[in-house]
Design goal:
Layout lengths: L3 E4 L4 E4 L9 E4 L4 E6 L6 E3 L6 E3 L14 E6 L5 E3 L13 E7 L2 E8 L2 E8 L6 E10 L5 E14 L7 H4 L4 E5 L2 E9 L2 E9 L5 E5 H5 L9 H5 L11 E11 L4 E10 L2 H12 L2 H20 L1 E4 L3 H21 L14 E2 H7 L8 H12 L11 E2 L20 H16 L3 H4 L1 E3 L5 E3 H13 L8 E2 L17 E2 H20 L3 H22 L8 E3 L3 E3 L9 E2 H10 L5 H14 E2 L2 E2 L2 E2 L18 E2 L3 H10 L3 H11 L8 H4 L7 E4 L10 E4 L3 H14 L2 E4 L2 E4 L9 E8 L2 E8 L8 E6 L2 E2 L4 E2 L7 E8 L4
Parallel strand pairs: 39-43
Antiparallel strand pairs: 1-2, 2-9, 3-4, 4-5, 6-13, 7-8, 7-13, 9-10, 10-11, 11-12, 12-19, 13-18, 14-15, 15-16, 16-19, 17-18, 20-38, 21-22, 23-24, 25-26, 26-27, 27-28, 29-32, 30-31, 33-34, 34-35, 36-37, 37-42, 38-39, 40-41, 40-43
Helix pairs in contact: 6-19, 7-9, 8-9, 9-11, 9-12, 11-12, 12-13, 12-14, 14-15, 14-16, 16-17, 16-19, 17-19
Bound molecules: alpha-D-glucopyranose.
Length: 779
């Protein structure tokens, strides 16, 4: 069963049936204003900070889950019938009412056809203004004159989302206004802390409401507001639940089209509202803002485009996967229908990973994010778990070691290395950044301290202490003495990256000492962690083995196996064996489980859910990368296809979640809802799926000395092409696979000239370069 399809030329996902199993959402705004919108126009918004500056309301865990939203109702004044341009909230019978929703890059378009009236609206956030535009067009296709009303409805919330439940306060604070056609919403917290928003329409409204109860009416809902039935009443009461609603009456001759825009924005109605109205009352300006938005995404994604024999991979890699990466990069884990506002901070490890997939599109923004993260590091090398984009933290003492995660700080090393390899900006390594608890050091020093912190915090077997957790937030290995095998493998990888960065800076001695330390880590892992068929997960309290065949539950975990080849710690027989056992014990048609069998005694999650044996998606691409490192392109691609959301487009009744976005987890086989994907958008899966596809399957990888071409593809592919921008030069890369191998660059020509090796040295800025590659076994 399918509910929609990918319109690749428009870069839109088209939802033809609005009654999707769960809400399929999109994001509006990638600077300061963020709006979340479902395929039924439900959803909320905030300005900069999802905890302290919320604007449109989200009703937590309600039914339907996406209420309220950005609602536009059309009423036929003659028949008194009414409907909404999005299918919900009125929810007309789908036999007579037709609806389409197109989620695009930074916008969503809705159109409905009912009773001879075609209506559309596009919802988007202009690139440079903190507001959202609802651009409406209504066409009379009925062949007779029609008397219609348009009602708009937006429900405000109380700004500070963690107070939303405190109704004895919240219900007595709103100060709505209506002046010169603009609705204002003002809340006074103190003379220096006041919040303002506004909404207007570009036509003159007949009436308005600023009070939710007046618009909706008692014992009603957004599906049947009293105001739509009887007309808005110009309600303007202080306190209660504020909203912005307009009524606009108009007449449409047969074939006639009317357009109107509504704008909802942040700032005082009398100043900002008026200014923005001056701008957008001209429909050409609305159109221009929409075009700027489209160009923004087009330019951003032009730096990597591919054409392969696999339409899923093309579609995801050229559009939807990098789009999800950008959403995660900007809004981290604080805005979705699951992460509804309990936190506004950037998760340290999450953000370090998120930025790794957008560096080629946005090097400057990535650098800013890196500095923000580096400033969240203590002098000891450890890092905070969350940083806030709006509240700058002052000097903070490092908390008890046991409350820190064992991995947060180490991600910095991978993130900075990725930035330097992509941009060639080695000066960044020598720029100074402050530590959270005072003093400063160069970026390179920060990274050395990150490694040092883990090197200094080892357990009984010489493995990294697991502390509060490692990548797996829910793993309980013991805060004082627990040891994490995964963190140890991660340290091995991080030391390797540090050696490369030392080389970039020409520090040979340091490079050698990092490589030496790396060898020690390799030995520690190999001597202590091989269980016979795979690597164990850790030592609980430094004693009990976790992730062993001998254990009754959680015998095998994905994280350590998937990092063994990825990190280069072992790429020979053991590596193949542990990855074969991942295939055997953890892989299913929907992806790779995090562990097997699930725990039935200690986990807060039932078997098959979340970190207790779901197909936790984030580490799945690590396994893809590892298979590529091992040269097993067919298996890598089997994993890629299973996880890829678009694979399931036509069988979406199982997956349920959006077919254009990766989820945090898919319910595991030990649960009756096996295959249902949950928690879309904010997940490291996006970033790693993108890195796996672009850098490992397609094999176009930024490295220290240039752009490496190292594909690992399904044998049956004849070839593919990639257009890539790298350090400000362009590369048109055509890869042929005449011998039908998975891996192995036989010939690489640049601009007609054959080259040694498979690393393209950076070419002059602005140049266009033709790269021809032939894969094969031998030269
Ligand atoms: C969530 C967290 C992430 C963590 C993962 C595994 O996705 O955001 O930080 O690594 O769960 O526990």
């Amino acid at each position: 069963m399918r509910y929609g399809y990918f319109d690749e030329s428009m870069r839109e996902y088209v939802i033809e049936r609005p009654d999707t199993p769960v809400s399929w959402i999109n994001y509006l705004g990638f600077k300061d204003y963020c709006g979340i919108i479902s395929n039924n126009a439900g959803g909320y918004s905030f300005h900069k900070d999802s905890v302290r500056n919320r604007l449109l309301r989200m009703r937590f865990n309600s039914i339907p889950m996406d209420r309220p939203g950005r609602y536009l109702y059309i009423k036929d004044r003659e028949s008194e019938d009414y409907w909404s341009i999005s299918w919900q909230p009125v929810g007309k019978e789908l036999k007579e009412y037709r609806n389409e929703c197109r989620h695009g890059l930074g916008y969503s378009k809705f159109s409905s056809q009912y009773a001879g009236i075609q209506a559309k609206f596009v919802n988007f956030v202009p690139v440079d203004d903190p507001c959202e535009i609802w651009d409406v067009e209504i066409r009379n296709e009925s062949g007779k004159k029609r008397e219609l009303s348009l009602f708009s409805y937006a429900e405000f919330c109380f700004w500070k989302v963690d107070q939303e439940f405190n109704l004895q306060y919240v219900l007595y604070t709103a100060r709505p206004s209506y002046e010169d056609g603009i609705i204002g919403y003002h809340t006074f917290f103190s003379p220096i802390d006041q919040r303002h928003a506004y909404m207007f329409m570009t036509e003159t409204p007949l009436a308005f409401d600023t009070n939710r109860e007046s618009f909706i009416g008692p014992y009603r809902s957004e599906s049947n507001p009293v105001a739509v039935e009887k007309g808005c009443t110009n309600s303007l009461k202080s306190g209660w639940n504020p909203c912005a609603a307009f009524q606009w009456d108009f007449v449409l001759e047969p074939g006639e089209v009317r357009k109107v825009s509504l704008v909802l924005g942040i700032g005082p109605a009398a100043s900002e509202g008026k200014k923005i109205r001056e701008k957008y009352r001209n429909p050409e300006k609305v159109k221009a803002a929409f075009n700027v938005l489209n160009d923004f995404w087009k330019n951003r994604f032009s730096v990597f485009q591919c054409k392969t024999p696999d339409s899923n991979l093309d579609n995801m890699t050229n559009t939807w996967n990098p789009y999800q990466c950008n959403v995660s990069f900007h809004w981290s884990r604080f805005a979705s229908f699951i992460e509804v506002g309990g936190r506004e901070g950037l998760g340290f490890r999450d953000s370090s990973q998120d930025m790794m997939s957008v560096i080629h599109q946005a090097p400057e923004e990535s650098k800013v994010r890196l500095v923000e993260l580096l400033e969240g590091q203590y002098k000891s090398g450890a890092a905070v778990h969350t940083i806030s984009p709006t509240l700058r933290i002052g000097e903070e003492r490092q908390p008890e070691k046991e409350t820190l995660c064992s991995d947060d700080h180490l991600w910095l090393i991978l993130a900075v290395a990725a930035y330097v390899f992509e941009t060639g900006d080695k000066d960044f390594l020598l720029s100074e950044v402050r530590y959270l608890d005072g003093g400063k050091g160069t970026v390179y020093e920060h990274l050395k301290m990150a490694a040092r912190f883990t090197l200094d915090n080892k357990g009984r077997h010489g493995l990294a202490l697991s502390l509060a957790a490692d990548w797996n937030d829910c793993i309980e290995l013991g805060r004082k003495e627990g040891e994490s095998v995964w963190t140890s493998i991660f340290l091995f990888k991080a030391l390797g990256e540090l050696a490369l960065l030392a080389e970039v800076l020409g520090r040979e001695d340091e490079k050698m000492s990092f490589l030496k330390l790396q060898e020690t880590e390799r030995k520690i892992v190999e001597e202590n962690c091989w269980d016979g068929k795979w690597y164990i997960r850790g030592f609980r309290n430094g004693k009990d083995v976790v992730g062993s065949e001998k254990n009754p539950a959680c015998k095998i975990y994905l994280e350590p196996q998937s990092w063994i080849p990825l990190s280069g710690l072992n790429t020979s027989e053991r590596a193949k064996e542990c990855m074969d056992n991942v295939y055997k014990y953890l892989f299913t048609e929907y992806g790779i489980h995090l562990l097997y069998p699930s725990d039935t005694k200690e986990s807060p999650f039932p078997p098959g859910m979340k970190e207790n044996g779901a197909i936790f998606c984030h580490p799945n691409p690590w396994a893809i990368i590892s298979e590529c490192v091992l040269g097993r392109g067919d298996r890598a691609f089997e994993y890629y296809t299973a996880l890829c959301p678009s694979t399931w487009n036509d069988k979406i009744e199982v997956r349920e979640a959006e077919p254009y976005v990766y989820c945090q987890s898919i319910i595991g086989r030990e649960h009756e809802d096996f295959g249902k994907a949950r928690h879309p958008w904010g997940t490291g899966t996006g970033t790693w799926a993108y890195i796996a596809a672009t850098q490992y399957i397609l094999g176009i990888r930024p490295v220290k000395d240039g752009l490496q071409v190292d594909p690992c593809i399904p044998q049956q592919w004849d070839g593919y092409s990639v257009r890539r921008k790298f350090r400000n030069a362009w590369y048109e890369i055509v890869i042929r696979n005449p011998e039908h191998v998975c891996k192995g660059v036989m010939v690489l020509k640049m601009n007609g000239r054959e080259q040694e090796g498979n690393v393209i040295p950076p070419q002059k800025e602005g140049t266009e370069n033709k790269i021809e590659v032939i894969l094969g076994n031998q030269k």
